[in-house]
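Quick check before the chapter quiz. The format below is the same one you will see on the exam, so make sure you can read both the input and the output lines.
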Amino acid sequence: MSLWVVMLITQAYLIRTGRKSLHRSVGKASYALVPLVFLATLNLVHFSLKGQGTGNATLYFLALMLNGVFAFVVLFGLAMYNRRDSVSHARYMVCTIFPLFTPVTDRLIFAHFPDLIQIVPVLDGTPLVQVLGFLLADVLLLTLIFWDRRSKRQTQAFAFALTVLLIYHASVLTFYKLSAWKSFAVWFASLPLS
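Here is the expected output.
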């Protein structure tokens, strides 16, 4: 994930400084990095499930991590699909960071804003501070949509990315209640992955 963030920053810098050829070369590395991020996340999620059972909190965190990496892959896929449309491509690439917000926002909240913990919902005794990360991502995307419209850009990338994120957020907040998700968790935990 750290490499992904470094790549995003590097790619933006290369475009800004007019080095499109190098941008394309570095971009090709994403075809190897994204599958590694996906597989590493699957392995981490699988390892995290071991011995956890299928309580609500476990099912919630399964949806948080697993659905988050799927949202990341969808946004990356949209960026690659639109690679010839530089405006949409750049916007989708920026949006790949949004499904990754909660690991950062969770740590910041627990370390520096503990009073916020009191206002979030609780599941099986666990405060769901991720909802604040979701809210921040959604507000930032709404701001980008407004900025895009105001500057008369003709792209729907931010709006579509917000739709992907809202589906992701809704899945995290609801899947743990579904018996089908519990069955999936049992099946996934039984796989010989980690």
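If your answer matched, good. The chain has one domain: 2-190.
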